[in-house]
Amino acid sequence: MREIISIHHLLCNHYLQNRDIVGCIFTLFHEKFAVHYQEPAQLARRLLDRSYTTPVTIAHLSRQVALSPYYLIRLFRRVYKQTPHQYLIQLRITKAKELLSHSDVSITEICAEVGFESLGSFSALFRKSVGLSPSAYRRSSQTMRQSVYIPLCACLQHGIDDTLKQ
Amino acid sequence: MINRLAVATLWVKDQNEALRFYTEKLGFEIRADVTVGDYRWISVGLKSQPDFEIGLSALKAGGLLTEDEVQMLTTLVESGKLGHGVWKTDDCQKTYDELLAKGVEFVQAPTDRPYGTIEAVFKDTSGNIMVLSQDKS
Known about the structure:
The complex is a heterodimer.
Chain A: H1 2-15, H2 19-33, H3 38-51, H4 58-64, H5 69-80, H6 84-102, H7 107-113, H8 119-130, H9 134-140, H10 152-158, H11 160-165
Chain B: E1 7-12, H1 15-25, E2 29-36, E3 39-45, E4 53-58, H2 67-78, E5 84-88, H3 92-101, E6 105-113, E7 117-123, E8 129-135
Parallel strand pairs in B: 1-4, 5-8
Antiparallel strand pairs in B: 2-3, 3-4, 6-7, 7-8
């Protein structure tokens, strides 16, 4: 496994100099050893789960899991069907939705609490992702139960069980 | 013995747009909003009917739905051939006026029906046809 990781780092280092050739090798390498690389993606996800309230960069995250930013993004997307950045934004928006529905914390405080540095970008991202502004979402979701579920029929139709296993 | 209907689903072309329509225009509440990976389950319901909710199901390929099936479903939904519903109101004309002022698209103004109701017909943002119905007596 250590040898595999060394080869991987070598490919990462050369990737920027010769994208086409190394990219092909990368893909073959990735296909062959993908199973072993679920672990770094899972680690990156755990790190994001723990640190979403603070500023997180892909450079910092990739150093923590000892992968190149390029390969981490590629690997993460393969395992979770979204980039680490998309996952981080989704995580922050999900936490914001919970706080809007089930607390009296002000929107400005929620913005800071879930890791956004600007109220403007939080509101814009929230609206783009959810469909409503944070205040409209709060108004419409006051009676939402704390524990909600996806009906089994919808899970089966959309293959949700497979996603949950990851 | 089955007791009641708890959840029904509607196909929608854009979940965000549908959420805005059902909450901001029709005044529904959000009952559930769960995202798992790239799948979002969102349901809405009426304040006056807390034990029933409608899932706003995205017309999007994935799971058991193929691109071809999504295209087929989208055509049917857009043309109002799939996803009908009847919403009851105490005053069809008043509710019609309120919803019209909010920009809801009606395909029929309040009309007396021979079976004892006054009914208007509107479309949601995806094309689903809904009846606004008032019992006359």
